[in-house]
Specification:
globular, about 35% helix, Rossmann fold, 6-stranded mixed β-sheet, 3-stranded antiparallel β-sheet, 9 strands, alpha/beta
């Protein structure tokens, strides 16, 4: 089976600051993968490289076995850690932009997500709270029939109730033949949805494996395991 995402010995630096260092990982179809790390560990850089927005300094990246390009960008839906809609837009405007820009936009799924998220097309983006803005971000990302969803800190600034709603929507609406990579440092709030986890620190993978197997082998939650591993870094 060809991985949906494969990085081999990828490195990336910004001047003298190393963001990724000889990092390798692969993501198989049908998995929700937690990309775990503290702020500055390299999560966002990895996401942007996987999305085709940044080029690595060295190493290789493949999406469904192909080098990054027009075809691979069409297979990837990326939710950045900052809003991807303009403040003047209504929710309807943001969805219409998504429809016009992406051939795999699913209008029916977008409508169902709006209902689930309790969002109205008439509402202005500038009037949305942080939590409602995150709901719109996720609606935009999941409104596509992509192969790979990359979600960068999707619950980073919202309250616990909103977090649960966003996670429920993620599990409900992502394409089952696809995979999702979710970057986060809020592990206790989100670990229930993970099939696999990848822990990175200093731009390198320090642990990777099946989430349930890691829980059983360690006798700890992923959050407890994360804290233990990072205390030693």
């Amino acid at each position: 089976m060809v991985p949906l995402l494969e990085l081999q010995s990828v490195s990336k630096a910004y001047g003298k600051k190393t963001a990724l260092l000889d990092l390798s990982l692969s993501v198989e179809p049908g998995r929700i993968v937690g990309l775990l790390g503290s702020n500055g560990s390299g999560k966002s850089t990895l996401m942007q490289i996987a999305a085709g927005l940044l080029h690595p300094d060295s190493g290789s990246v493949r999406i469904r076995g192909q080098l990054p390009g027009v075809r691979t960008k069409a297979a990837v839906s990326f939710m950045p850690d900052r809003p991807q809609f303009e403040s003047w837009m209504s929710i309807g405007d943001a969805l219409d932009f998504q429809r016009d820009f992406f051939a795999d936009y699913d209008a029916d799924k977008a409508r169902r997500m709006l209902d689930f998220m309790k969002l109205s097309r008439r509402d202005k983006a500038v009037s949305l709270s942080k939590g409602m803005g995150e709901r719109l971000q996720l609606t935009l990302a999941l409104s596509r029939k992509a192969s790979l969803y990359l979600l960068d800190e999707p619950i980073g600034g919202v309250d616990p109730v909103a977090r649960d709603h966003i996670l429920d929507a993620l599990v409900e609406f992502y394409e089952e033949e696809s995979s999702v990579v979710v970057s986060t440092h809020l592990i206790s709030d989100i670990e229930r949805i993970f099939d696999e986890i990848v822990m990175i620190q200093g731009g390198s993978v320090i642990m990777q494996g099946d989430a349930e197997q890691l829980r059983m082998a360690s006798g700890k939650s992923i959050d407890q395991l994360f804290k233990e591993v990072y205390a030693e870094c």
